[in-house]
Every structure is written in C-alpha cells, then in structure tokens.
Amino acid sequence: MAMDPGDAFRWDGELTLTRHDPETGATFVIRVDSIRHGRAAGGTRAAHYPSLTDALADAARLADAMTLKMAVSNLPMGGGKSVIALPVPRKDIDTRAWDRILRLHAENIDRLNGIYWTGPDVNTNSADMDIVGDTTGFVFGRSVGRGGAGSSAVNTAVGVFEAMKATARFGGMGGIEGLTVLIQGLGAVGGHLATMAAEAGARLLVADVDSDRIAWAQRFGCNPVPIQQVTTTPCDIFAPCAMGAVVDRAVARRLSASAVVGAANNILADAEAGSVLRDREILYAPDFVSNAGGALHLVGREVLGWDDETVASYTEAIGQTLTLVYQISAADGVPTDVAARTLARKRADAPEPLAR
Ligand code: NAI
Ligand code: PHE
C-alpha cells in the first residue's frame, strides 16, 4: 500500500539502518520488519528515488511484504528489505562506483550480525551478491559457482505462472491457452513468465520501457502495448512485473481485465484498490503469495537444504495457497489482499508443515 511521507518514520518495524556515502552519493537503507519467526530476509533494490523519505517508505512497504511472504509460504524467516537510493538511475552508475556501493552495503549488513539476510531484487543480481558475499556471509542468491543458489528470478516466474493457472481455474477462465495475458516489465522475472505463458498458448501483450526487451519478445510473437496504455488495454490477465503501486483505486475502476496476477511487489497502491477490484469481480492474486517462488528457491536451497524437486513441489503449491486465499475472500466477503493477510497471520502463529 502507498504510505504518506509521515508513515516512513512512524513505521513500527524492528529496525532501520541508514548510511550515506558522499563519494558515490548513494544512501543505504535497511529495514527489518520482523524477526519474530526467524532471521529477516529480503532483497536489495537499487533505484533512483525522488527523496530519502520515498526510499524509507518503499523499504518499509517492501520489508512488510517480505514478512507476509515468508509467513504465507510457511518459511521460517522474518521479513526485511534493503533499498539503495542512487543519485542517478542505475544505468548511469559506473562499475567502480557500483563496486564501492555494493561493498559498503555489505558492510552495513555485516554489522547487523545476521538478523538480516539480503538477496537480489530490482537492479541487483547474483554477480552483485557475489561482491556482497566478499564482505558478509549474510547473503542469499550468490552465483552457483560461488556456493549460492543463483538467480531467484526463474523460480519466481514459475510461481507466478502457477498463480496464473490457479487464478484462471478459480475464475472460470479454464487453462492459459487462448487467454490474453498483458505483461508489464520483461525483466528477469517478466521475461521468463512471458516465455512460459507463450509456450502454454497465451496471446501475449507486453510493455517495457526498454525497447530491447520489447524487440526480444516480438521474436516469439508478443505484441507491444504503449506504456501509457498498460492499464486501459483489455486483457484476461494483467501481470505487473516491473515496479509496485501499479493499481490504485482509479486504475482498479477502469481496468479491463478479469484478473491481476504479477511478480511486482506491492502491486496495490492504496487500501481501496483491493475493494474496488473485488466489487468489480476482478480476481487479484496478492503479490506476496504469487511471487514467493524466489524466496522458496533461496531459503529452500540455502537454509533448508532442498533439492530441485522439493523446490519445484513447494513452488507448485503456490497455486493451492492462492486458491485458499480466494476461498477465504469469498467466504468472508473481504478483498483477496485482506484474506491473504489473514492467512499469513494464521500461518505465522501456527506454521503448517509445508504442503506437497
Ligand atoms: P528487473 O529489473 O529484472 O525487471 C524489471 C523490468 O521492468 C525491466 O525490464 C524494466 O525495463 C521494466 N520496467 C521498469 N519500469 C517499467 C515501466 N514503468 N513500465 C514497463 N516496464 C518497466 O526486475 P525483476 O527481478 O524482474 O523484478 C520485477 C518485479 O518482481 C519487482 O517488483 C521485484 O521486486 C519483484 N520480484 C522479483 C523477484 C526476483 O526474484 N527477481 C522475486 C519476487 C518479486
Ligand atoms: N527479492 C526477491 C523477493 O522479493 C527474492 C528474495 C527473497 C531475496 C528472499 C532475498 C530473500 O522475493
């Protein structure tokens, strides 16, 4: 949900760490939302923010989503997140400065003595986690050659695809074949999702600010949609896979889709959006349920010692969890995001054996 600027400071999580580096102009934020059920984990997002208040608010929202994601997935971890507020967009940071930024970030993490573990997120990847790993052991998602579980993006996409299939079933749309799926953001997750949906016979509409990504998707039959028309173009499933806060109450009122199922963290921009989607009978798959495949991969491989098969079966179970969320929403007459929070709280208080 969107926060007003004051909420960035009134936040009631466990801990906030901030540090500024005059040399690169980067400001580091780590927010640990909860360690009630284990060490906090959540990725490192690097982005250019309008203000430090925005960066703090984003970190709080993202850390909260990680707590919910771990709980609803029955993973024995708490939630946290790092935001590196860059002075300019990531593409304008040179290699030397980026290396310094990652090493300072790793120092900050190390000082927290393991209550917070990081991993990849927007604008960071396994190669970056390898650099972080030179300074601290509290890092998931290093490359396989360096002893990590590698990228979390592929399994995130697999989980989102399971969520799409479950949503199509629950919403009476049948299978994915023949459905029109609009993917916003063809990055590490959205790109994999696009290939899976295309293979399953979906008609794909795609949008990305990066024209190279669009050209790539056109090669396997995707049709581009202008960025400004993403939330007005009719489709069966709208899949936000870029940044969050895509659906506010106004977008929810005009959206021409049967369902919203995406990878982006914090898709809903305000509390009312979920209610509007429910009133309009648009199924919203809460992001922290659908996009848990990355967490299942990283925590499963690096903490719980899961093999490929085990990761795959727990990722498939995302569809069952989501169906349960839809059932709770229907039975209690509440929006799906509220139902998912209820389920997350229940599982946090009494974790279920992981269903297979
Ligand atoms: P990414 O940085 O690889 O991809 C994002 C893509 O969105 C890029 O291609 C970028 O050009 C595009 N984009 C940015 N702004 C856009 C806009 N306004 N309209 C259309 N396209 C735009 O990031 P990644 O890893 O694919 O993550 C995507 C989302 O999924 C993020 O919200 C992330 O927090 C979330 N997520 C990622 C996980 C992971 O394991 N990578 C796990 C769970 C959630
Ligand atoms: N950033 C990803 C997410 O939002 C993957 C991740 C999960 C990173 C857990 C670190 C820890 O789920």
UniProtKB/TrEMBL annotation:
Task: Work out whether the entry's keyword set contains Nucleus.
Answer: no
Q: Name one GO molecular function term.
A: oxidoreductase activity, acting on the CH-NH2 group of donors, NAD or NADP as acceptor
User: What range(s) does the Glutamate/phenylalanine/leucine/valine/L-tryptophan dehydrogenase C-terminal domain occupy?
Assistant: 151-356
InterPro entries attached here?
A: Aminoacid_DH-like_N_sf (IPR046346), Glu/Leu/Phe/Val/Trp_DH (IPR006095), Glu/Leu/Phe/Val/Trp_DH_C (IPR006096), Glu/Leu/Phe/Val/Trp_DH_dimer (IPR006097), Glu/Phe/Leu/Val/Trp_DH_bac/arc (IPR016211), NAD(P)-bd_dom_sf (IPR036291)
- Which superkingdom is the protein from? Bacteria
Q: Does the keyword Oxidoreductase apply?
A: yes
Tell me which residues this entry annotates as catalytic: 81 (proton donor/acceptor)
Q: Which UniProt keywords apply?
A: NAD, Nucleotide-binding, Oxidoreductase
The biological processes this protein is annotated with in GO are:
amino acid metabolic process
- Pfam families attached here? ELFV_dehydrog (PF00208), ELFV_dehydrog_N (PF02812)
User: Which residues does NAD(+) bind?
Assistant: 185-190
Coiled coil segments of this chain:
none
Q: Which family does it belong to?
A: Belongs to the Glu/Leu/Phe/Val dehydrogenases family.
Designated name of the protein: Phenylalanine dehydrogenase
Naturally occurring in which organism (per UniProt): Mycobacterium scrofulaceum
